[in-house]
Design goal:
This protein is of the alpha+beta class. The chain contains five helices and 13 strands.
Amino acid sequence: MATYLKTHDPYQNYLVIHTHSQQHEKDELFDPLLGFPYLDGMSMQIANRSTSYEDTRNWLAKSAQTDKPWIITIDEIGHHSRGIDPDDRLDNNQDSVRAEVLWANLMAGGGGVDWYFGWRNHNNDLQCEDWRSRDSVWDFTRHALDFFNTYLDLLKLTPRDGLTKGVQNYCLAELGQTYAIYLPFGGTVALDLRNQAGTYKVAWYNPRAGGDLMSGELTMIEGGAPVALGKPPEDEDKDWAILVTRQ
């Protein structure tokens, strides 16, 4: 089917296949497809949101060893009864999904997320009649895209988790030039610049509200050693992105 679609589609849309949620199921079904010339990637179902980053990194690495590197996106997020909750659900999961799925996939080098509405909420995946039921989701998705499209040259950046110390975080880097760090649950982080002497600017980006870059506790740092990046402008317990650029 993939061969037929790729050889007959005049627009050459990228082609992916939706997966099962469990890792052993992905391995069984997709390992034999690695390197297949008419498949552009996988659109993963995720049973546990906290594995989004690792799963994305894993399959990108696997496909990079073939002649057909894949685009890895995420579609159906667990629990499958909820997906991404509507705005008016009092215990909605939007903050954790933004951190553990959207930003996790993008920071791992993935291609983004196809939002799934679950089946237990109103305006669910089977009977949605009001896309405004998830207004805030479209907003924070746009904020993520704005950050990546405005401030990062993704062709030059690769995941570099070993460069950061602190609470859970993700890092994309062009060594000695640009570092993008995401703190999914707030906190502080130190960046290892031991072999990258120079002066660097530190700016913060709010994934919840978007807008311009903001100044935190520190605005300039010196490389040549591991350096703490200070505190964000506000809301230390919420998710933040940090942009560190050589001056």
